[in-house]
# Entry
Amino acid sequence: MGPVKRRRPLRAAFNVMAAVNEGERKSAAEREDYLGEQWREAGALAAFEPAIDQGPGMYLGALGAFLLAGAGLYALLWYLAGPRLAQLASALPVVLLAAGAAAFLYLALEYAGLAATVYSGRNFLLPLARSTRFIVKLAPAAGRLGRLFGSTADRMTHSMVQVSNAVTRARRRRGRKAGPVLVLLPRCLQRPGCPQPLEEDIDSCRRCGECPVAGLLDLRNEYDDVVMKVLTGGSVVPGVVRSLAPRAVIGVACERELLAGIMAVDDTPVVGVANQRPEGPCRATTLTVEELEEAIDDFASKRRGGE
# Structure
């Protein structure tokens, strides 16, 4: 009788573990493939929320906190440096105090005008607050402030989008400019596994009814001057906007992509509509069609059928 071969349970266990790890790597690669640009960073999924309903008050509160903190810091520095400044020139502390008080008063008026515009829908904006880019630039810092008080950056960004939308609507001119109203949609509105690519031509949708795209095409067809495009991410927004030269852009996306898109567009009114993510980010998302229709009605010139 020949020698008996001993089993090697450790080698078999290592092989099983290697297979499991390989499967996890493939799974992670597949997730990476469908996740959007703003969700690929480490830890991005930890704060995921299927849907966010946050008003403009959170972001306005953060802006007010920044204003008060800046005034307090200036006052502290003036108090500490005042005696030394008086040695250089006796009037210097008074001049700096008056300049700081004037700057704070002006920023307070800017803030009051912004808040009045957001909550009234009328244009009370002073020059600084008229720039949505200035409002959006503070979003990352406001997000960090929100986390200190138990909120999330996405909730703060959602609130910021509400403020930005209010400013854009208040500043819109009644006269119609040339160019279409451009509606930008994320590819994650399609059902997972849909074989029909829509990035080149959204009208290639087969209208199977398993995702919101068919209904959005019906909405678009009610207008004479609305163009819809499906995009793969916020990085391609500037090129699309430059090529079509729209009079307004309406973006549908998650809060992170909306922030990136609004920051990327210059000199064109932008309204953001946040999507809902019942199956997770970048997968089978949906939206409130009435919210999108309201945004289109703010800028579209006319509706077919004389409505």
User: Anything to note?
Assistant: The chain is about 50% helix and 5% strand. Residues 175-297 form one domain. The mean pLDDT is 82.
